[in-house]
């Protein structure tokens, strides 16, 4: 079954005017070709859509039902080119973003605010993944953008630094270290129970911690991978933990965040995307981020 948009337009005009002469004027054509368009449409559909005689024009029951779908077809045909042009300009479409749990309480909110302001009609598909999973998803084309930790394979991915913040020590608010009134050194932690990152599931933070502080692994009482879990254990008095400065935004009661002495490396979060990425919405987002700097 194949009918043309011209046939649909002719039918809608006659159905709305209920007069072939008026419908022909509306379409800037004469009545004979208009009648032929309706006849071809009815032949294709296989039922009579319009009853006509010398006195009146009326829709059949089938014609009334067909009119609803015919109008939708016309709207869709008019909308489709507009949608395609908007997607090409990055004003519509879908942007698939991967994010780490920690970025969820740091930069993700401001990034979504930028998207809402600059690309309000772009649908956002958010996926919480660790950096390794994001890299795989980006490589497979399942993600457009990742919010991930270093190191970054610059042969295959482009990146932009979104956040650089201090590594801090989270301690119970009544802990003796909280009364030092100075940055905490490695010597201060010699006999202190430590909640540490998993070297496999949270490798970035594990490496960062041991680069910044001389860790005594005999002091490690818990090994976890999520910052929220770590801070919650600190609040429960189970030990102290190294966390990014933005962890303060979690607002976990009973925890104090202290500066570290002689810190050499900041905690970094990057936007990363596959080289050659052509999603117009992503390109518009990156341009918007450029203008914020």
Give an account of the 3D structure.
This protein is α/β, with parallel strands linked by helices and 293 residues long. It has helices at 5-17, 20-26, 31-45, 61-88, 108-118, 131-139, 203-212, 227-235, 280-292, and strands at 50-52, 57-59, 93-99, 122-128, 145-148, 157-165, 167-172, 194-197, 220-224, 240-244, 255-259, 267-274. The radius of gyration is 32 Å and the shape is rod-shaped. 30% of the residues are buried. This is DNA-binding transcriptional LysR family regulator.
Brief rundown of the structure:
This protein is an alpha/beta fold.
Residue windows where pLDDT falls under 50 for at least 5 positions: none
Number of strands: 12
Would you identify the CATH architecture of the largest domain? 3-Layer(aba) Sandwich
Strand content: 15-25%
The CATH class of the largest domain: Alpha Beta
Order of helices and strands: HHHEEHEHEHEEEEHEHEEEH
- From the N-terminal CA to the C-terminal CA, the straight-line distance is 56 Å
| Number of continuous helical runs | 9
- Rg value: 32 Å
Pfam families: HTH_1 (PF00126), LysR_substrate (PF03466)
Domain HTH lysR-type: 3-60
Family: Belongs to the LysR transcriptional regulatory family.
Protein name: DNA-binding transcriptional LysR family regulator
Map the helices and strands.
Elements: H1 5-17, H2 20-26, H3 31-45, E1 50-52, E2 57-59, H4 61-88, E3 93-99, H5 108-118, E4 122-128, H6 131-139, E5 145-148, E6 157-165, E7 167-172, E8 194-197, H7 203-212, E9 220-224, H8 227-235, E10 240-244, E11 255-259, E12 267-274, H9 280-292
Parallel strand pairs: 3-4, 3-5, 8-9, 8-10
Antiparallel strand pairs: 1-2, 5-12, 6-12, 7-10, 7-11
């Amino acid at each position: 079954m194949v009918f043309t948009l011209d046939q649909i337009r002719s039918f809608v005009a006659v159905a709305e005017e209920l007069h072939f002469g008026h419908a022909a004027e509306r379409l800037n054509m004469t009545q004979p070709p208009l009648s032929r368009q309706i006849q071809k449409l009815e032949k294709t559909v296989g039922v009579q859509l319009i009853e006509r005689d010398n006195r009146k024009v009326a829709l059949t029951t089938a014609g009334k039902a067909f009119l609803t779908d015919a109008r939708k077809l016309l709207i869709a045909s008019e909308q489709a080119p507009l949608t395609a042009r908007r997607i090409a300009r990055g004003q519509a479409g879908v942007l698939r973003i991967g994010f780490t749990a920690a970025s969820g309480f740091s930069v993700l909110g401001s990034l979504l605010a930028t998207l809402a302001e600059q690309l309000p009609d772009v649908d956002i598909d958010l996926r919480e993944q660790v950096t390794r999973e994001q890299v795989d998803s980006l490589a497979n084309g399942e993600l457009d953008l990742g919010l991930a930790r270093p190191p970054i394979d610059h042969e295959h991915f482009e990146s932009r630094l979104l956040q650089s913040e201090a590594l801090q020590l989270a301690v119970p608010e009544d802990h003796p270290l909280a009364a030092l009134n100075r940055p905490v050194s490695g010597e201060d932690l010699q006999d202190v129970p430590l909640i540490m990152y998993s070297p496999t599931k949270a490798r970035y933070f594990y490496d960062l911690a041991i680069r910044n502080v001389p860790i005594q692994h005999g002091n490690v009482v818990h090994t976890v991978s999520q910052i929220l879990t770590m801070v919650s254990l600190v609040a429960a008095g189970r030990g102290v933990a190294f966390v990014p400065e933005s962890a303060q935004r979690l607002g976990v009661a009973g925890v104090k965040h202290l500066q570290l002495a002689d810190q050499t490396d900041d905690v970094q979060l990057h936007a990363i995307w596959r080289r050659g990425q052509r999603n117009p919405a992503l390109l518009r987002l990156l341009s918007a981020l450029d203008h914020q700097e």
